[in-house]
Design brief:
about 600 residues, single chain, Rossmann fold, alpha/beta, six-stranded mixed beta sheet, 4 domains, about 20% strand
Length: about 600
């Protein structure tokens, strides 16, 4: 089988490439003149790089083809060891005459612990010199030993093969060898940019990746208006990205938009590393942050709904048993079951969340009965909502300078300057491109925002993307159907140089939850905008107004009730709306 880019190659060329598998090299020799001549001739005809892998028995175990100047060295099943060499040496051609080794070549030598990495220069289909590199033993000043330019005789002689057997035991000294931790996730971020917004979005993706524990190596922006259906960024850009993955030893690529199963599968085949999208990254963060049973169920539901249509395309994600970003939550075992089992689990979770929703609705009804106004803190993630909650109520809710530090809603009471008690509810933060499955799964939690009497939209006044973040929050609130009065709270004013540059969002407050600046003014603003106090009144309700009595029992607070010949004598606590409906029955005391 010929790997790599074989598109457009004739059947005859493919047969000649496959014939390389039948060639063998003597165990004592580094390479054979026959193989060199054939791969140089084929390179000249197709103007593409050709790479071959040889094991120590002299057998060809892989043949791959790449674009001119770009060959993505394949990751085959090598005899991997944290200290020994792999037992495989790589040879690949360079059309154009230069046989010098590139950074990608040397990094692949180190990452895959090849016995040797060799580049062969090709000019007009003929051998034009070569360079060979070997890993140096520990303690050497240079990590590699590079030889070249080499003649055909030097390349195909016995000296380099003897060098491999000399180096192998020296490199295998365990007390001095430094190895790369496979568990560390070294990520390259990829996004599209059609209106100059891609850089901002990828910068935010970088924050998400770091929150999830990944080390960000590079950020790649593709100038493209719409995602390419097969590979998201296009095959040419994907080939460049493959080289970048090898040169930087990346093991994870995170795309800024939601990918289809086909896009994930194709990218993983081209890049040779695991590929996830922004949605999988956010779901992974949520799976870490969920503490309550409800939160864990909501995250699991969102992950299963996200992965269900992608089961056939999650190539490396499903085959890996080591976990990592995008694989936490419901677990590897559930994801490898068929769709029927996953759908059954989804139904089970939805049934459990339905029961949780009923309990939450009962609590809301009780709060309404007690007539305690509810003020929900909402806003972009990491805007300082939890810090503000702690500052106003004196509580100690978890505060971190990370995205989505708060996932489960937290309620705390605060007393306004006029003595009225208000319940503050801290909710999950919003973010651009918030996954639809996540919004759907967290619907019962987000209803805290919809059911609140007043919203405090907390804004990070020091953010460079302030205007965009305000738009994102307003869009999500509209999607949820929240239409209450909103107070815009510009937080982190201690980091703002010129407050006059902030947009007008009346009613608004300027505070620093960290220093306490402006908190008293904010409480007064809440007092002015919270629904009015309840009215305690006495009424005499005619018996024929049974519907009105039922409404008072349901929406008001009955303090006393007495049935007299003239009607029903009631002392009640009502809001402005109910007061307007019973004003004709008020009893003057």
């Amino acid at each position: 089988m010929i790997n790599g880019n074989i598109e457009g190659l004739s059947k005859q060329i493919l047969l000649r490439l496959e014939s390389i598998y039948e060639m063998a090299v003597e165990r004592e020799r580094f390479l054979s003149e026959e193989i060199v001549a054939l791969i140089c001739e084929l390179t000249g005809e197709i103007n593409r790089e050709i790479s071959i892998y040889l094991n120590r028995r002299g057998e060809v175990i892989d043949v791959s083809v790449g674009e001119a100047g770009q060959v993505s060295l394949p990751y085959v099943n090598l005899r991997r060891s944290s200290v020994r060499l792999s037992g495989v040496r790589c040879f690949h051609t360079h059309p154009g005459g230069s046989g010098k080794l590139s950074g990608v070549d040397l990094n692949s030598l180190k990452a895959l612990r090849f016995d040797a990495m060799t580049a062969i220069g090709v000019q007009d289909g003929k051998f034009a010199g070569a360079y060979a590199a070997f890993l140096n033993p520990p303690g050497e000043v240079e990590p590699f030993a590079i030889y070249g330019p080499l003649t055909m005789g030097e390349l195909c002689g016995e000296e380099f093969q003897q060098e491999i057997f000399r180096l192998d035991p020296l490199i295998a000294l365990p007390e001095t060898v430094e190895t790369q931790e496979d568990e560390e996730e070294r990520a390259i971020l990829v996004g599209l940019d059609d209106r100059g917004e891609g850089i901002r979005s990828v910068n935010e993706l970088e924050e998400l990746a770091r929150t999830a524990g990944a080390k960000v190596l590079h950020k790649v922006i593709q100038n493209k208006k719409m995602p390419e259906p097969a590979t998201y960024i296009g095959r040419g850009k994907a080939a460049e990205l493959s080289l970048l993955c090898q040169s930087s030893n990346a093991n994870l690529v995170i795309c800024d938009d939601e990918l289809s199963a086909v896009q994930i599968r194709n990218l993983e085949q081209i890049l040779g590393v695991r590929v996830i999208d922004r949605t999988a990254l956010i779901l992974d963060i949520f799976s870490r942050r969920a503490i309550s049973k409800e939160g864990k169920l909501q995250v699991e539901l969102a992950q299963l709904k996200y992965r269900l249509p992608r089961l056939t395309g999650l190539g490396q994600t499903l085959s890996r048993l080591g976990g990592g970003i995008g694989t936490r939550g419901p677990g590897e075992k559930k994801l490898e079951t068929d769709r029927r089992h996953i759908r059954r689990r989804i139904r089970e979770i939805e049934a459990e969340l339905s029961r949780v929703k009923e309990h939450r609705n009962a609590l809301r009804t009780k709060r309404k009965k007690n007539r305690i106004p509810i003020c929900a803190l909402t806003g972009y993630t990491n805007a300082g909502k939890s810090t503000l909650l702690n500052a106003l109520t004196g509580s100690n809710v978890l505060v971190e300078n990370k995205l989505f530090a708060t996932l489960d809603p937290v309620s705390r009471g605060v007393v306004l300057p006029d003595g009225q008690k208000v319940l503050l509810v801290d909710t999950v933060g919003f973010i651009d491109k918030l996954p639809h499955d996540l919004v759907e799964a967290f619907h019962s939690t987000l209803e805290e925002v919809v059911e609140a009497d007043l919203l405090l939209h907390v804004v990070d006044a020091s953010s460079e993307n302030l205007a965009e973040q305000i738009m994102v929050v307003k869009r999500v609130l509209r999607m949820l159907g929240a239409n209450q009065q909103i107070i815009t709270v510009f937080n982190k004013m201690d980091l703002v140089q010129d407050a006059t540059l902030l947009p007008a969002q009346k009613p608004q407050a300027y505070i620093s939850a960290k220093t306490g600046e402006g908190l008293e003014q904010l409480l007064k603003l809440i007092q002015e905008n919270i629904p009015k106090r309840m009215h305690r009144v006495t009424i005499l309700l005619p018996y024929e107004q049974g519907n009105l009595r039922s409404m008072l029992h349901e929406e008001g607070t009955i303090l006393s009730e007495e049935f007299v010949p003239e009607g029903i004598h009631m002392e009640v606590e009502v809001d402005e709306v109910l007061l307007g409906r019973i004003k004709n029955y008020l009893k003057v005391v």
